[in-house]
Each structure stands twice: as structure tokens, then as C-alpha cells.
Amino acid sequence: NAGVTQTPKFQVLKTGQSMTLQCAQDMNHEYMSWYRQDPGMGLRLIHYSVGAGITDQGEVPNGYNVSRSTTEDFPLRLLSAAPSQTSVYFCASSYASGTDTQYFGPGTRLTVL
Amino acid sequence: GESVGLHLPTLSVQEGDNSIINCAYSNSASDYFIWYKQESGKGPQFIIDIRSNMDKRQGQRVTVLLNKTVKHLSLQIAATQPGDSAVYFCAERTGGFKTIFGAGTRLFVKA
Fold first, then answer.
1. How many Å apart are CA B99 and CA B39, to the nearest integer?
2. CA of A80 vs chain B CAs: smallest distance (Å)
3. What secondary structure letter does DSSP report for A82?
4. Rounded to an integer, what distance in angstroms lies between the CA atom of residue B46 and that of residue A3?
5. Nearest residue of A to residue B89 by CA position?
């Protein structure tokens, strides 16, 4: 299994541009989520999904959209990038909620100029 | 790799010594706690977890202690090795799926 994969690994955007961060998992996990990680802070939940066709907001959802058309994929869209969205983004998946272990991808470092 | 946590608390230990990393959690209703390890350029990796009905849980070279009275969690690493150098996060869950992460502690292991 490849586990959780993310692309791209690095991205530079100009303010106002849009883009999609890709996330895929091959473990047949129902739960997927997106986090952002900023210097000196823990990971903060952006959006999550409990299964195909179901998404919900996390702690910091503004400026981001998600969709879950398949079990495997959970893309994160930045509609109009802002410098405040400069961060490292991690996708994670788990079989179910509760005490199931979350598996994290390697991250995408995004810089918005 | 990515730079994670430029201004994190730092713990420096000698190779072979035991390490203790502490964490204060925020919600007295949290019922599940996890420790993650994050190496430079990688995503967080699960180390060990504990439910709120337990005080202690042991894994391979790691032990997690939970003190609900003072909302404190600790991770003990026995015989610390250079490969243990990383940022360590505690995380809490209050039922359901949402996980709240701490800011992290950077562990340096001196050879």
C-alpha cells in the first residue's frame, strides 16, 4: 500500500490564484481530513469527511472547499489564495472515527506571495 | 524538508538517557489521547494512545501517563536514541472524530 499520498509537495501561488491540493489513500479508509500546520502551532483541522459524499467543517474552514466523490480521494481547493494561507498542509485518513489511528500524508508546503 | 515549529519548547537529552515530554490538555471532557512523532519533512506518525479510563499505557520503549486531575499527559521514552530526534505532539479527542493538537515539543538527542 502507498498509504496516504499528497501532491504537489511544494507550491508557490500569487494572491488571488486558485489551486487544488490532492490527497489520495489506498487503505479503504472512510474518514479523511485536512490539517494545516503553522510554525509554533499544532495541526488545525480545516475540513473532514466521514465517507464519500459527506463533508464537514473543522476548526479553520474559511477560504477552503472540499468534496469527496470517491472513498480514495479528498481534494482541498483554495478558491482565492491569501498570504495567510501560507502553511504546510497535511491530509490524513483513518478507518473510522473514535480511537482509530489517523495516517498522515507527507504534506504540501504552500507559499502565497 | 519542511520546517515545523520554529519556536517550539525544546528538550535535549543524551543518547541512552530516558526522555520525558509533557503536555497539558485543555478539555476535561476529552476521552482519548494520542502522541505523535513528526520528523523533518514528514507527516505526523502515531506513537501510542490512551483512553481516559486508564492512567498508564506502555508500548515498545514508550510509556504514556495520564493525570486527569490536572489535565496532564506525558510521554516517556526509554533509552533515547538519535532516531528519536523529532517533534512530538500530544492530541486529544472529545468523542467523535475531531482531534485537537498541542503545539509540540522538539526533542534533540545528543550522541
1. 20
2. 24
3. -
4. 14
5. A42
A55 in B contact zone (CB under 8 Å)? no
Residues A5-49 pLDDT 10s: 999 999 999 999 999 999 999 999 999 999 999 987 789 999 999
> Which set of grid coordinates corresponds to residue A110?
504552500
Which residues fall within 8 angstroms of residue A62, CB to CB, at 6 or more apart? none
Give me the mean pLDDT over the B46-67 stretch: 96
Output phi, psi for B84, to 5 deg.
-85, -10
Contact B102 A109 (CB under 8 A): no
Residue B64: what residue type? V
Name the minimum distance, in Å, from the CA of B44 to any CA of chain A. 6
3-state secondary structure of A74: coil
Task: Report d(CA B13, CA B76) in Å as an integer.
Answer: 12
> Nearest 5°: CA angle at A13, between A12 and A15?
145
C-alpha cell recorded at residue A96: 473510522
Write the pLDDT tens digit of every residue in A50-95.
999 999 999 899 999 999 999 999 999 999 999 999 999 999 999 8
